[in-house]
Design brief:
The chain has about 150 residues and is mainly alpha-helical. It is about 85% helix and about 0% strand.
Length: about 150
């Protein structure tokens, strides 16, 4: 009886490990499908010299958050695609830890907005109000963390 129980637990253990491994591979594949094209696109944009143009255009808006203009690309990727796209866009920009922290806070509050707004609508919550609240609180958090960073630096 003890041997049967041990074998049953071992089978359960191995099947759980196998399922977890396969799920991990699947999730990694999904992440790579988003991250690699975004990373390549940003490297291409950098190579063409468009980062400087984008940076100059967004610099006034992004300075409110204490961020360089090119960080707008990462925020937009996070807001409209997902966090993995934001990571792929932000990584080649070589931002400071302060900038990364600010963007992470903002995107932690509001990310994947098209998808999550659709999910919110399905729950019966006012999706437009929730969308507006997430974006406003994200922007507000960016301003606050910038002020706090200035206060303690």
């Amino acid at each position: 009886m003890l041997v049967q129980n041990t074998l049953l637990h071992m089978n359960t253990f191995y099947s759980t490990v196998k399922r977890g491994f396969l799920n991990g591979i699947l999730i990694t594949y999904k992440m790579v499908k988003v991250i690699v094209p975004c990373y390549i696109a940003i490297e291409f944009i950098k190579h063409l010299g468009l980062i400087e143009v984008i940076s100059a255009f967004f610099k006034p808006c992004m300075s409110i958050f204490g961020l360089p203009g090119e960080s707008a690309l990462g925020l937009m990727a996070g807001y409209f695609i997902n966090l993995y796209a934001a990571i792929a866009v932000i990584t080649p920009l070589q931002l400071s830890s302060k900038d990364m922290t600010t963007i992470a806070l903002m995107l932690g509050i509001a990310h994947s907005l098209p998808i999550e707004t659709g999910v919110t609508r399905q729950t019966g919550v006012n999706a437009w109000l929730m969308l507006a609240a997430r974006v406003v609180f994200s922007l507000f958090a960016g301003i606050v963390i910038n002020l706090v960073w200035k206060l303690f630096s």
